[in-house]
Amino acid sequence: MTTQLALLLLVAAAGAAFVWRGWRVLAPVLRAPPVARTDHPAARAAFVVQDVGLHRRLLNKRWSGVLHALIFSGFLVLFTAIVQSFGSGLIPGFTLAPIGGNSWIALLQDIFAVLITIGIAMAAWQRLFWRPKRFAGSNSRDAWVIFALVMAVAGTMLLEFACHILATGQWTPWRPVSGAIARGLALAGMGPEGAAAAERVFYWAHILAVLAFLVYIPGSKHRHILTAIPNIYFRNTGPRGALPPPPADAPGVAEIGQFDWKDKLDLISCTECGRCQEACPAYAAGLPLSPKKVVMDLRDHMFARERGEEADLPLIGGVIAPETLWACTTCRACMDVCPVHIEPMTKIVEMRRSLVEEGAVEPMLQDALASLQRNGNSLGKPARQRAKWTKDLGFKIKDARKEPVDVLWFVGDYASYDPRVQRITLKVAEVLHAAGVDFGILYEGEQNSGNDVRRAGEEGLFETLARANIDLLDECDFRRIMTTDPHSLNALRQEYRLFGKDYEVIHYTQLLLELMEAGRLAPAEAEPQVVTYHDPCYLGRYNGGFDAPRALIRRAGHSLHEMGRCRENSFCCGAGGGRIWMDDAAMAERPSENRIKEALALGDARLFVVACPKDTVMYTAAVQALGVGDRIAVRDMIDLVRPDPGVAAA
Amino acid sequence: MHIAAILRIVPDQNEELEIDDSGADIDREWIGLKLNEFDDQALEEAVLLKEAAGARVTAVALAGDGAERQLQTAIARGADDALLVDHDIDGIPGARAAAHLLAGPLRDLGADLVLTGVQTPEDVFGQLAPFLAGLLGWPTLNAVHGVSAGAGGLEVVQEYSGGRAARFAVTGPAVLGVQTASRPPRYVSGSKLRQASSATIARAAGALPDGFAAPRIAALAEPARSNRAEMLDGDAEAVAERLAGLLAERGLLGGRE
Amino acid sequence: MKVLVYADVEAGQPAAVARELVTGARALAGPGGRVDLALFGADPSAAADMGVDRILTLPALAAAPYDPAAHAAALSAAIAAAGPDLVLMGYTTAGLDLGPVVAIRHDLGLVSYCQTARAGDGAVETESQIYGGKLIARAATPLPALLLMNVGAFAEAAPAPGQPEVVTLEAAAPQGLRFIDATAPDPDAVDITRADRLLCVGRGIGEADVIEEAQEVAGLMGAELVGSRPVVDAGWLPKERQVGKSGRRVKPALYLALGVSGAPEHIEGMGEAGLIVAVNTDANAPIFDHAHYGATVDLTDFLPAFRAALEGR
Fold first, then answer.
1. Residue B189 and residue A461: Cβ atoms within 8 Å?
2. I need a labelling partner for A78 at 20 to 30 A (CA). Which of A59, A308, B122, B185 fits?
3. In this predicted complex, what is the ipTM?
């Protein structure tokens, strides 16, 4: 009876502490501004199954994924032991025996206790000896406390069972591990009486370990065992390429309280695993941005505010430096690798929005945005010169504003104005013309699509540009839009839905592939080579355009040697999110140069094939800067094809 | 303090300029127009002064292509009011005519400090700030590199050649030709611009004195090419190699310390 | 013709531009003409060798620092006293402060950015730089007129010892401005005027990180890195490294200008360099009219190539 009371008091105290500590964590989330994240329940549930149950993202890192699976599954099984311990302590006669507590459940408990131990050992090994860089900046003390508590829970359980066997003499094949320990204890000289006493000690140690764990987790990164499922369930199911709108009552987030409840659920769900940090091109370049640190800093600030601290610390310029916000390329890698679906990038854009509204913009970005306001392009060129590149063509491209076309080619800024890209633009025009495609352009009426303007945090200018383009497109007669620029593609396809427009937008690689398959294009007259291909963020990760470029490369007769970071794991060139307009002097290593080195390390890739005008700019510069022009050459997709001689002749 | 910031729209001289058929003007049909870069600085300085010391800022422009949009932008940047001065001059008034057109409306406005850019790429017949000062009878400082509000009035830094500068206290009304603001012009967000696009713009009429004859350019010409540089052809590598050779021949490479 | 020259003063002496203007004034005045010098802020004796007929001075200002309001009043008195057909001033800060003001006051025609000036029939014929020197504007302005001449438009007059008549003017001291103090360039800062090789970067470099690369190339060349106004205004280089009207005037043996368009204000600061080499993608950039060698390659290509070429030597 006293045991029962003691346990009851203990459980009540620990439960109260857990609720109190949990409430402190949850309160700011529950108080936060609303956001709609409850639609598509089936799809949401499916994600939970995949990412929690099947560890889909976790297993992208084999070692970490496996060790997590071991600990995770072990915990589920050990939960039965916990139920048994507390049940038997609180309710006389409680036992799991009728449903297999002494048979198969017992066996599972024994096996999974060992698996947990292996998992913890793998985790400890990783932290002690491999020390992945992604853990830099994480709270490692927290991790070790958790390891210790987990081992305490599992260890005390096994020891309790072992002593129980020794004390009662009930040897059972269902408890092979506990039995082995019991034999060990017996060999060490423990008798039945001593074992009975020890069983009580380990029982209480187990109870205490479990309760300590319970009390500890709300203040630890380990609370993700409670928040991960809701965080994944409530993830953003909207189009990947459409940014969420700014808060209803403000131009952006300038104050921690303005983040919505899902943003804050993100903050309390972070496990500090650092996969985002490892994937981040800005972090790799030595810029002062780690998505993990951003999330951790926001979280710590949120908690400090809860405690009444940091009241005068500004969010931007205090908690998060403006340089951190401007460093982001919006490549989305951080969001796509996060096992619990935290969205660091959208938070960065939210904060950029308030910087833009204040007029505190990175100086070179300011020049570009001012030019976009004035000229509709970022390069400071007069709008009327947008189609000047067409002068060098031997034919006149249709003016889509004046006559119907099948394919409306949205050319984009860099493809129109940048002398390094114009060569490619001209070639695309010539190839489409020769292949008999009915296409036209908007001439000087086209303006920047606004994709990266929006990602730079400039909502108002994005809207101005988008509406100008939409007004113009409304007057045109076309079947589908084609662009060489994945950024324009993303805006036209996904962002313009904000204004009720649902265009069919294709990337030129898709059109080229169609033409190739229809026999209207042939491989360029070049020797087959080993090539590698860089997935542009806004074609691949954002729009799933992984296959057409690869099919084109194969059809052009080349063999593709993939870089390690390909497809969904592609490594951003560093130009996105407005970065191409900003100063990169602070970079230790430009992401584009890092990438070229990756391609060179393949050993045999002679061509670095790109499918984005910004990539042409970035990688041509990178090859030059590294002085490796004799070892690898940047080629655009269009360089791999030519009009089929038969079609061209006809 | 009531500051008038005068904004002028000028051809973008970074572009190729072509002489028109009259031979006395550039071909303006296709040329890009932009806010005079020094006026941009002047407006920023006016808004900075307002923020630091409190002032009313009125952005003022002569009617013409893009003037209203510039004034709306100025409001988005922090100007309180905008004033568009109508006139019946065909084309862009020169600085001297502009000074005459603006002097009356500026007096009526009650401005006691006028800020504008130190020069434009076009003001061959003189600069606006000192012309206005002459007409208003106010002192003027040009090549201004920063204005701040002190206890006894404004402190203005004026720059001279050779990196010299002087500080002046301005105790009464004045006209300043601004070269550089105390801080680079701020960015004005698209949403502020969109808001300001509905701002009301006051109008006033400017008049030229009787018998005012605007000076005219007789002819424009390309600069004499007599001193044209000898151009080094080829790609960057070829040019670099050639240049390094030329410098080495002249003893202008290496051999130091 | 009667020509009145306003003398800019530096450190109590007539500035070089004043001696240049006297050359022009003599030519414009012609034989039998008169050249007067309005000299405020310096003692008349400092201008005794400038070869002018009269020196108009205002004793109250002789030892005082430059004050635009006081000088405007004094210049106005000088014009009233001398009745010139033509007033010559430099296109300097003082020229800007005073020229248009007295032109309004005395109803003088005014032409700015003048590169040449020639006496015509009751008029002065000028060639001015316009659009940052991209074009030349010719004008004929009826006399009396006032010209703001570009610095360097005329050669400096050789000293000509003489005893010009000194005319003392009177003018009421105007109100509204008060000189506080003057700052000279920081003597500890790098003195680019002493370097015999300069590598100058202009607006055309586009990005701040090109500065670093340019700095390295400058190091290889044994040159100091300098910049034009936009580069300094952008904060990419410190003020003491600015070449041009609002920066320093330099005269190095070698001036390599990268991405510099060559606005008159910049040319004023470096036009006398021994060897000028310009690299700019715009083949029409005025800098090529002042350079000895030029090239129109892209700087992002040129810098690494030039660096390699230097390292290869």
1. yes
2. A59
3. 0.89
